[in-house]
Design a protein that fits this description.
347 residues; alpha/beta; TIM Barrel; 2 domains; eight-stranded parallel beta barrel; two-stranded antiparallel ribbon; oxidoreductase activity, acting on paired donors, with incorporation or reduction of molecular oxygen; Luciferase-like_dom; TIGR03857 family LLM class F420-dependent oxidoreductase
C-alpha cells in the first residue's frame, strides 16, 4: 500500500518516551518520524538524559522539515532569559521549527526541588515575558512570576517567536490555554468523550477572550501499541498508565475528567511495589514490575483511552479523536521507528 495513504500532517509522535539512558537513540527516532511524514516530534523532558536544549538542537541538525516540540518543560525551571535564549537558538538552528510546550506539574515536585509552584497568574506572566524576550523587547517585571529588573536578549535570529502550547487536564487549565496560549496539549489516557469536552472548553474560552475560533491548536496525546505481541502491548500501555495513575492528585484528575470512579486508585497505590515511591514509578521500577502493578487497573482505563491492536483498529481510534475536534494527534509510547505498520497497511 502507498505510504502516502496513511501519512498525515495531523500526526506527531514522542521521541525518547519514558525512562532513557541512551540519549543518542533520538537521532534515529527523529529521522524515522520525518520519513513517515509526521508533522511534529515531541520530547518529554526529564532531567539527566533528556535535556530540552541539547535534544532539540540535535534533532534540528538531522531533520529538515519536521517541527520540534517540548512536551513538556516548565516555565519556572529555567530563568526566563535562559528559556527564551534556548528557544530562539533552536529557532535559529532549525529554521523556525520549534514549539515550546509547557505545563504546571504537581506542587510536591516543586517543593522537593526548591522551586516556586505555579499559579495561573504566574503561568500567564511567564508566557508573556517569554514572548517579549523572544521579540527582542526589554523586560522589567515584578509580579507573580518573580522579580526581573532588566532582561533582554541582545542577539536574535530572524525567526518568529515559537508557538507556546500549554499542557492541561482540568477545566481551569483548559480555560487558561484557550485565553492565553497558541495551543493546548491534552494528557494521555483521555477517552474520546473527555477529549470532546476538553475541546469545547478550550473553544469557549477562546470565544470569551475575543480570539478567532481555531486560534488555539488542540493536540491530543494517544498511547499507541500497533501490531505488537500481547506481552509487549501490555508492557507499553499498562506500564505507561501506571506512571500517571500512581501519582497522588494526578490520578484523581485523570479519573475525574474521564468520569470514572477513583476507587481503583487506592487499590493500585496499595500494591507493595509502589510502597514509598514519591515521584514517578518508572524512575524506580522496571518495566516488568510496572506491568505487574498494571494488573490492578480496570481494563477500561487503558482499553478505552489508547490505540492498540491492528493498524486498522488504531486508525479507527485516531478518527474518533479527530471527530472529537482535535487538530493533531501526538502518538506516545511507541517510538517512531515502531510506527511503520500504521503507515504501510490497514491491518
Amino acid at each position: 500500500m502507498d505510504n502516502s495513504r496513511w501519512s498525515s500532517p495531523a500526526l506527531g509522535a514522542y521521541v525518547l518516551p519514558g525512562r532513557v539512558t541512551d540519549s543518542g537513540a533520538v537521532i534515529g527516532q527523529a529521522q524515522a518520524a520525518e520519513r513517515l511524514g509526521l508533522r511534529t516530534v515531541w520530547l518529554s523532558e526529564r532531567w539527566g538524559t533528556k535535556d530540552l536544549g541539547v535534544i532539540a538542537g540535535a534533532i534540528s541538525q538531522v531533520t529538515s522539515g519536521i517541527r520540534i516540540a517540548s512536551g513538556i518543560t516548565h516555565l519556572q525551571s529555567r530563568h526566563p532569559a535562559l528559556l527564551a535564549s534556548l528557544a530562539m537558538t533552536v529557532q535559529a538552528l532549525s529554521g523556525g521549527r520549534f514549539v515550546l510546550g509547557v505545563g504546571r506539574s504537581v506542587d510536591a515536585m516543586w517543593k522537593a526541588v526548591g522551586l516556586p509552584t505555579s499559579t495561573n497568574a504566574s503561568i500567564v506572566d511567564h508566557a508573556d515575558i517569554f514572548r517579549r524576550l523572544c521579540r527582542g523587547e526589554k523586560v522589567r517585571y515584578d509580579g507573580p512570576a518573580g522579580t526581573y529588573p532588566s532582561l533582554r536578549l541582545n542577539d536574535l535570529p530572524d525567526q518568529p517567536v515559537p508557538p507556546v502550547v500549554f499542557a492541561a487536564i482540568g477545566p481551569k487549565g483548559l480555560e487558561l490555554a484557550g485565553r492565553h496560549f497558541d495551543g493546548v496539549l491534552l494528557h494521555p489516557f483521555l477517552t474520546t468523550p473527555a477529549v470532546r469536552r476538553s475541546v469545547e472548553l478550550v473553544r469557549r474560552a477562546e470565544r470569551a477572550a475575543g480570539r478567532p475560533t481555531g486560534s488555539v491548536r488542540v493536540y491530543a496525546t494517544v498511547v499507541v501499541a500497533c501490531e505488537l505481541p500481547a506481552d509487549e502491548e501490555l508492557a507499553l500501555v499498562g506500564a505507561r498508565a501506571v506512571t500517571y495513575y500512581q501519582i497522588p492528585g494526578f490520578g484523581e484528575r485523570l479519573a475525574a475528567v474521564n468520569g470514572w470512579d477513583s476507587e481503583p486508585l487506592s487499590r493500585l497505590r496499595s500494591h507493595p511495589l509502589l510502597d514509598g515511591i514519591r515521584g514517578s514509578a518508572d524512575s524506580v521500577l522496571t518495566r516488568e514490575q510496572l506491568v505487574e502493578v498494571a494488573s490492578l487497573l480496570p481494563a477500561a482505563w487503558t482499553g478505552e483511552a489508547a490505540a492498540v491492536g491492528s493498524a486498522s483498529a488504531c486508525h479507527q481510534v485516531f478518527h474518533r479523536y479527530r471527530a472529537a475536534g482535535v487538530d493533531e494527534l501526538v502518538l506516545h509510547g511507541s517510538t517512531p521507528e515502531r510506527l511503520g505498520p500504521l503507515f504501510t497497511r490497514a491491518g
